[in-house]
Amino acid sequence: MIPSWLLIGVVGFLVALAGGLLNSRDVRWFARLRRPDWLTFERLIPLIWTIIYICGAISAYLVWEAQPADKW
Prior knowledge:
mainly alpha
């Protein structure tokens, strides 16, 4: 049996990789956007998404371990 933390980690990693499947048209569109002056946290967006993925993985692990499959 695959450990729950490993399966959750692999699925989370695959989801994060799928977000990087942008083609050149998408990148050009994003580069042409005009950003508002108040948008000062743009450099932190990758860190914010990393924290969101980590919290989601921890949540999935805690739920998985609290409710094992044999109770269904």
